[in-house]
Amino acid sequence: MPSRSPLLDERAIARTLARMAVEIVERCQGTEGLLLVGIQRRGVELADRIGRLIEASEGVQVPRGKLDITLYRDDLQTVGVGPVVGETSLPGSLDGRTVVIVDDVLHTGRTIRAALDEFADFGRPKRVLLCVLIDRGGRELPIQPDIAGQTVRVGPGERVDVFVSELDGRDAVELARVS
Amino acid sequence: MSVDAAALALGKDLIGLETLSAAQLQFILDTAEPFKEVSERAIKKVPALRGKTIVNLFFEASTRTRISFEFAEKRLSADTVNVATQGSSVSKGETLVDTARNLEAMRIDMVVIRHGSSGAAKFLGDRIASNVINAGDGKHEHPTQGLLDLLTLRDKFGRIAGLKVAICGDILHSRVARSNIWGLTKLGAEVAVCGPPSLLPRDIEELGVTILPRIEDAIAWADALNVLRLQLERMQSGFIPSLREYNRVFGVTRDRLARAPKDLVILHPGPMNRGVEIDSDVADGEHSVILPQVTNGVAVRMAVLYLLAGGTGAVAAAARGEAA
Question: For residue A56, which phi and psi values (nearest 5 degrees)?
C-alpha cells in the first residue's frame, strides 16, 4: 500500500475551485461563448462544480461538455489499448467559442495535447484555456496551464491522487508514495 | 484498471462468441457505447488505429457486413484494402493460407475474413501472425452480428439477462443463429428457436435452447424475435415446399403479432425477403429495430477492432495500472 499525505481537504478544494471560477470569468472577460469541457473522468466533475459556481455568481447558464481522449492518445501503438473509452459529449459546434479545458492533474501534458487534437475535429474554438486543479510539474510537451488551483512539487516515486465525492465518496487531494 | 483486465483480453483473434466469457461479452458491448457517438460527429474519425493496415478478405458475397467493417475501420483511421475473390488470385486456385501469407508479406496488421467454410477463420488465425476477425464462416459463427444483436437488445430493454428471445427461420444453415445463441445464453437470456423441422439442426437443445414448433408459440412466448433470412436456395434443395407456404406457416405478420400478449421487438440480420419470412409492415413497423441494428453494427465493429489492435501489450499495461 502506498503511504499518503494530504495536500488539500474538502474545504481547501472548495476554496480553490471558487478562486478558479472567478479567474475563469476574469480571463474570459465575462461568460459570453464560454464552454467548460471536463476531461474524463474527474475533470468532468470539477468542470461541473466550477460551472455551478460561475452560474451562481454571474446568474447565467454555463454550458458544459465531456471529453474522453483515449482514442487520441499518442501511446496506443506502444502500450496498446488498456483503459475503457469513456463518453464524449460536446454541445454543438466549437466554432467561435471560448473553451476552457478542466482537468484534475496536469503532469506530462500529453492528455492536453490529445484534447487539443480532438477539439480540432469538432470545430475551431476562438480560444482555448487550460484550467487544472493541481499542476504537479513533469511536463514532456510545451504545454502550460492558464489557471492552476495549486502547484505541487512531486518527487520521483510520488503521485498526486484527486478524489471527488461524486465518484469516490469524498473530496481530497493526496500525495501518494508508490515506491 | 485492475487484475481482471487480463481476463477481459480477447486474445489475437475474434472467431466466435462460443469461446468468450460473459464478462468479455459485456466488456465489448460497453466499449461499443462510446463509439456510437463517434459516428454522430461532423468529422466521423478518431486516430486510434492510425497506421494500421487491415485487409477485408471476402470469399462470399456481402454488402452490409463488408461496408460496415469498412466504415468501422475508416472511422478509426486504419488503412483498408478490400479483396474480393472475383478478380483476385483466389479465382486462379490460390489457397487461403497462401493468399493470407502474401498479404502478410506486405506487412498488414489485421484480416477480416468472410468464408463459405465453417472453421475458415480459425484455420487462418492459427497460421498467420495478424489479428483475424471472423465476418462469417460457413454455418459456424458470425460473431460481430451476434454482438450487434446483443447491443441492440440491450439498448431497447436495458438488459439482456432474463429476456426471452426467439430466433425464427432457417436455424440449420445460420451462423447468425449460432452466434446469437452463444451470446444470449451466456448473458442470461432465455433462447428459443422456431422453424420448420427440416431447418432445425439435430441436438440444438444441447446448446441450452427450447424448440417452439409454431411461430404462434414463439410470438406468444418471446420479448423479442430475431427473424432470420430464408436463404432462397434452400427451396431448390427441398428444405421447404414453397416460399408462399413458408410465409403462410412461419411468416412474421402483423396479424400474428397483434395476437401477442405484449409488443415484440423485431430484429432481422438482413437482407430481408419481404413477404417471405417477414412482412413489410412488420419490418417497417414501430417495434422493428432493424435499422438500429445496422447503426450498432458499425459501433460494435469499431469496438472489436480497437480491442484487438491493443493486443496483449494493452492487457499487461492495464494490469500494471497504467491507466492515465
Answer: -65, -40
Residues β-bridged to residue B210: B192
Does the pLDDT at position B1 exceed 50? no
Q: Are B25 and A106 a contacting pair, CB within 8 Å?
A: no
* Biggest CA-to-CA distance, chain A: 47
Q: Which residues of A touch B30 (CB under 8 A)?
A: 84
A77, A79, A85: residue with CB nearest B31: A85
pLDDT, tens digit, 9 for 90 and up, residues B188-210 = 999 999 999 999 998 899 999 99
Q: Return d(Cα A9, Cα B295) in angstroms, integer.
A: 46
To the nearest 10 degrees (0 to 180), the angle between helices B143-157 and B64-75 is: 80
Q: How far apart are CA B213 and CA B194, in angstroms?
A: 6
Whether the Cβ atoms of residue B309 and residue B52 lie closer than 8 Å to each other: yes
Q: Cis peptide leading into A41, omega within 30 of 0?
A: yes
What is the amino acid identity at position B58? F
Q: What is the largest CA-CA distance in chain B?
A: 61
CB distance A76–B310 less than 8 Å? yes
Strand partners for B164? B190
Query: What positions of B carry a catalytic annotation?
Result: 64-65, 92, 114, 142
- Return all residues near B232 (Cβ < 8 A) that are at least 6 apart: B243, B273
Picking from A101-110, B160-169, B304-313, which range would have the lowest pLDDT averaged per residue?
B304-313
| pLDDT level of residue A1 (50, 70, 90 thresholds) | low
> Which domains are delineated in chain B?
5-142+296-312 (3.40.50.1370), 143-293 (3.40.50.1370)
Phi and psi, residue B249, nearest 5°:
-95, -40
For the residues of B202-222, what is the DSSP string, one character each?
A: TTGGGGT-EE--SHHHHHHH-
Beta strands in B140-232 (DSSP E): 164-168, 190-194, 210-211, 224-227
Sketch out chain A's domains with CATH numbers.
14-157 (3.40.50.2020)
What is the pTM (predicted TM-score) of this model? 0.89
Question: Measured between CB atoms, which of A84, A89, A111 is closest to B31?
Answer: A84
Residue B219 C-alpha cell reads as: 410470438
For B208-222, write each residue's pLDDT tens digit: 999 999 999 999 999
